[in-house]
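Work Package 4 report. The design task specified in the project plan requires that, given a folded chain encoded as structure tokens, an amino acid be chosen for each position. We show below one input record used in the internal validation round.
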């Protein structure tokens, strides 16, 4: 059979593709390019008066209050620096509850009365902007006729220049709030939660006798998984183009079962794309460190170096924007959906996090002998308490229609939030529970039996890829975050629940010492109490096993399999009290998060349901009917010639066509009945009725793909999209 002309044309386009060498620049290989498009502290040190620079630096490095009097000086220096690099426009960049990046561009040009213009950028413009607050998701905080909202300069996240072949833009990271001050974005609560966590961590450090306590911050290093699919294929797949995932597609003869893609040689076209993205990211100060093939064919990963959480969240958004833009230049589409292809691994965004400051270092560094490192054990115990008490909030922070297709499969941690400590820490905490830790399992030496090879260091414990929250040496890794999601959402939760846990521990230590208990004894008491009350969250085994799911329920851990199951976690009294106490969300803001998440879930599934019906009716069914006609004509021709015809293929195909028609009608009925309910009940209906109806259509369509003649099948197949580069 000859392949369908549309698909064949797409394949020929791909075969003719070459890396766009015009985007390669030998001078860009120099280490000096890192951060060259960032209005960083070193740049400010050269361009700002010393007193102004010291004020800005204190705000950035120590979290000191921003002096509004310096805004005009900083704005003028920022404008001059940007215009020297060819910039004509600036943009306040913010992160609304769409989960995407938003920006409003304005020119430096200001007309004057004599018909001429000057180039100006005033401090008041740097500090505050005004986009429309009612046109973004807001959960009812703003009505349509209440349009006013404000962006506010976040001095802790540096301005940067975003290059474009037709001109560059000065981008200023900002918060986004309503006219009455409610957070309409992810950055504002992230900064609030950071402040709350820092205050409580400082109390713990003070209890340990530290005097020189710097501002405490959380750090984040998000690993990003993604797929690259040729633009020619994506443009021929309405589901990929609109929904970001394939709603149809038969399993290819070969998938990922050979494990031959993981860490394999990077294809030449993909490597060219990676080189270009890394150059762009380096200029923007994004510390991209690691790149490799991921498990599924067509899937890849990039991992940055740790940064302060606020900056890491901004850079993560910038990375996705950069990838999408540069992928187009290379003839690719970068897919960040959590499950773009059924039957192979989906994509996550592993959020590695830790806490620390300039003087005391990383609080989650256990050292060589964790049993002797009381400060580390206290911060680690705080994580255990936080995860046990607020696992539901961690779960809802990564809830989405896309991530529902990934969580719980043999590729991602289950929707039960537990902690993996590893053998070494597990042993230490077990000793504490029994009265006190006196030893730590040590690293070993690993010989592989070849004299010419070095002796390898063997860690004191293994890693666990099935755990949602795994300790990995000097940090925890929250592995359940979805590829398309902002890391700010889980970081807000992590900071806030850590604030509560550290508050509890600090209060316990202060009270014990005040009552005359020796400090080390007080530490032992509080650690033992945390393990006794919250150790149920610690699980070192196989998180994918059925046995663990059953055991988790007996331990009292929440099993929230889907977005619909987890969304009510926003509305519990415990959540409202937590966020109110630490000033992260007021009740209206928390309710808004719930409403927006619910709305986005419903919209995502509605789009997919409409696409499923459209593609099934207008593309798949016509292909099947054309083939059915071919087979019927063949049977009729043979019988007219007096030859007994084998009708088995025609009958089997006709049965599948009938099943597809029935499935389409069932989906239409399911969608029609959706709006008989509203709110969480509507979401439950969508989960229990619409999604299964979509699956019935898909199963029939995928079965047809396996039997319909190749030259009649219009949609690019998994085999083509995953393997042709």
């Amino acid at each position: 059979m000859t392949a369908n002309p549309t698909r064949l044309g797409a394949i020929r386009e791909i075969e003719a593709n070459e890396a766009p060498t015009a985007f390669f620049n030998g001078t860009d290989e120099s280490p000096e390019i890192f951060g060259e498009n960032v209005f960083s502290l070193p740049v400010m040190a050269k361009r700002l008066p010393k007193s102004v620079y010291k004020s800005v630096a204190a705000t950035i490095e120590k979290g000191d209050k921003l002096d509004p009097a310096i805004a005009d000086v900083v704005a003028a220096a920022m404008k001059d620096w940007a215009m020297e690099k060819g910039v004509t426009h600036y943009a306040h960049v913010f992160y609304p509850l769409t989960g995407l990046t938003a920006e409003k561009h304005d020119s430096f040009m200001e007309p004057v009365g004599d018909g001429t213009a000057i180039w100006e950028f005033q401090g008041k413009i740097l500090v505050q902007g005004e986009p429309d607050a009612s046109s973004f998701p807001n959960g009812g905080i703003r009505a349509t006729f209440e349009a006013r909202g404000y962006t506010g300069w976040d001095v802790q996240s540096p301005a940067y220049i975003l290059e474009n072949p037709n001109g560059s833009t000065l981008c200023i990271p900002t918060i986004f709030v309503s006219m009455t001050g409610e957070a309409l974005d992810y950055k504002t609560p992230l900064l609030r939660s950071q402040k709350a966590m820092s205050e409580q961590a400082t109390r713990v450090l003070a209890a340990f006798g530290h005097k020189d306590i710097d501002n405490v911050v959380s750090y984040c290093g998000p690993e990003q998984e993604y797929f690259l699919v040729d633009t020619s294929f994506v443009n021929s797949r309405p589901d990929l183009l609109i929904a970001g995932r394939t709603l149809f597609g038969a399993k290819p003869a070969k998938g990922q079962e050979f494990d031959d893609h993981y860490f394999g040689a990077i294809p030449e076209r993909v490597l060219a794309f990676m080189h270009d993205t890394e150059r762009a990211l380096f200029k923007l100060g994004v510390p991209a460190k690691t790149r490799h093939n991921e498990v599924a064919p067509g899937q890849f990963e990039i991992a940055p170096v740790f940064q302060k959480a606020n900056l890491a969240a901004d850079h993560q958004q910038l990375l996705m924007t950069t990838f999408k833009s540069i992928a187009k230049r290379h003839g690719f589409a970068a897919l960040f959906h959590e499950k773009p292809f059924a039957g192979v691994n989906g994509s996550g965004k592993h959020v590695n996090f830790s806490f620390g400051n300039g003087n005391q270092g990383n609080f989650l560094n256990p050292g060589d002998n964790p049993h002797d490192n009381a400060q580390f054990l206290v911060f680690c115990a705080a994580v255990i308490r936080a995860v046990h008490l607020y696992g539901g909030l961690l779960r809802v922070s990564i809830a989405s229609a896309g991530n529902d297709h990934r969580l719980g499969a043999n590729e991602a941690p289950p929707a039960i939030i537990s902690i993996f400590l590893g053998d070494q820490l597990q042993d230490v905490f077990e000793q504490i529970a029994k009265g006190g830790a006196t030893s730590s399992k040590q690293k070993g030496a690993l010989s592989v039996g070849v004299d010419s090879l070095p002796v390898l260091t063997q860690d004191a414990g293994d890693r666990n890829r099935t755990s949602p929250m795994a300790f990995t040496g000097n940090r925890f890794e929250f592995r359940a975050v979805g590829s398309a999601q902002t890391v700010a959402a889980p970081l807000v939760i992590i900071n806030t629940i850590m604030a509560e846990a550290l508050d509890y521990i600090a209060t316990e230590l202060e009270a014990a010492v005040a009552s005359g208990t020796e400090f080390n004894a007080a530490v032992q008491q509080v650690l033992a109490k945390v393990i006794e009350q919250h150790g149920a969250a610690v699980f070192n085994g196989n998180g994918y096993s059925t046995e663990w799911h059953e055991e988790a329920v007996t331990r009292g851990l929440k099993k929230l399999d889907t977005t619909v199951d987890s969304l009510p976690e926003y509305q519990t009294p415990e959540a409202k009290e937590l966020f109110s106490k630490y000033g992260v969300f007021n009740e209206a803001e928390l309710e808004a998060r719930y409403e927006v998440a619910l709305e986005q879930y419903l919209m995502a599934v509605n789009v997919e349901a409409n696409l499923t019906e459209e593609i099934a009716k207008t593309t798949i069914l016509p292909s099947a009917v054309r083939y059915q006609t071919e087979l019927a004509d063949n049977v009729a021709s043979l019988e007219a010639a007096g030859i007994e015809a084998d009708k088995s293929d025609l009958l089997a195909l006709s049965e599948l066509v009938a099943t597809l028609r029935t499935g389409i009608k069932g989906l239409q009925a399911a969608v029609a009945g959706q709006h008989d309910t509203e709110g969480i009940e509507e979401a439950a209906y969508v989960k229990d009725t619409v999604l299964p109806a979509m699956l019935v259509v898909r199963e029939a369509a995928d079965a047809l793909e396996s039997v319909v003649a190749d030259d009649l099948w219009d949609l690019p197949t998994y085999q083509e999209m995953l393997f042709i580069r």
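The chain has 22 helices and 21 strands. Validation will be extended to a larger panel in the next phase.
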